[in-house]
Amino acid sequence: MAVVPYKEKESGKKEQVAEMFNNISHRYDFLNHFLSLGIDILWRKKAVKLLQADQPKQILDVATGTGDFALEALSLNPDRIVGVDISAGMLEMGKVKMKKKGVDHIIDMQMGDSEKLLFDDNTFDATIVAFGVRNFENLKKGLSDMHRVVKPGGKTVIIEFSRPRRFPMKQLYNFYFKSILPIIGKLISKDQSAYTYLPESVDAFPDGQDFLDILSEVGYKKIECRPLTFGISSIYIGQK
Ligand SMILES: C[S@@+](CC[C@H](N)C(=O)[O-])C[C@H]1O[C@@H](n2cnc3c(N)ncnc32)[C@H](O)[C@@H]1O
C-alpha cells in the first residue's frame, strides 16, 4: 500500500500529492526554510555544485514546486531551465517568484508529470530533482523518464530525505520529524495531513543502497550516494 497524505480518501497517490501541495503552496517556502533551519538551502547548493564541471546548458528540474532547486541551478549559467510539477498551486507561487527575480526568461515553469515527461529522448544536459522522488506514485517510472530525457553522458542529481541510522541522530530525528514537525506544520499550513505524510513517506522510501539499486535498474551508470547532515538527506547521482 502506497503512503498517501489523505488516508480517508479513495483517490490515488498522485492526485492526493497534487492536492496536498496545492493546499500548502502559500506556506511551502516559509515552512521549508523554517522547519529545516535553512539547511535545505545548503543541501541544494551542494547538489548543484556536483554539476559544475559539466556546465549543463539545458536543465530539467523535475517536481520543481516553487522552483528553489531551479533557482539554485542558475549558478551553473545555463541557457534554459525547465521546471515541471503536477501542482498548479506550487507552480503559481514559483512563477511569481521567477518574475520578481527577473529570471522568468531562463526558468520556464510548466505543468508536467514526472512519470510522463513531454520531452523527446536525449533533450537535456542534466536532470535534477529535490525532495520530489519520494512523492512519485511510480518511482521507477519517474526515474526511467528522467533517464530517457537526459542526453547520453548527462547526469541526474537527486536530493531526498533519508533516515539516519545511528545514535543519537536517529533518536533526535525521530523525535523532531514525528513529534515536533507535524504540530508546527499543521498550525502554519492549516493542512491536517501534510506534515504527518512527510515522516511517513520518508519511512517508506527506499533510501541509500536500495535507491542506488533502483537507479541502476532503470539504466543509470556511475551511481553514487552522498549522505548530508548525519544522513538526514542524501544526494544521489547517476550518469546516462
Ligand atoms: C517537497 S516539494 C519539492 C519542491 C522543490 N523541488 C524544492 O526543492 O523545494 C515536492 C514537489 O513534487 C511534486 N510532485 C510530486 N509528484 C510529482 C510528479 N509525478 N510529477 C511532477 N511533480 C510531482 C509536488 O507537486 C511538489 O511540488
From TrEMBL:
SUPFAM superfamilies linked to this entry: S-adenosyl-L-methionine-dependent methyltransferases (SSF53335)
Gene3D superfamilies: Vaccinia Virus protein VP39 (3.40.50.150)
EC nos: 2.1.1.163
Annotated keywords: Menaquinone biosynthesis, Methyltransferase, S-adenosyl-L-methionine, Transferase
CDD domains the record matches: AdoMet_MTases
Family classification: Belongs to the class I-like SAM-binding methyltransferase superfamily. MenG/UbiE family.
Name of the protein this chain belongs to: Demethylmenaquinone methyltransferase
The species this protein was found in: Roseivirga misakiensis
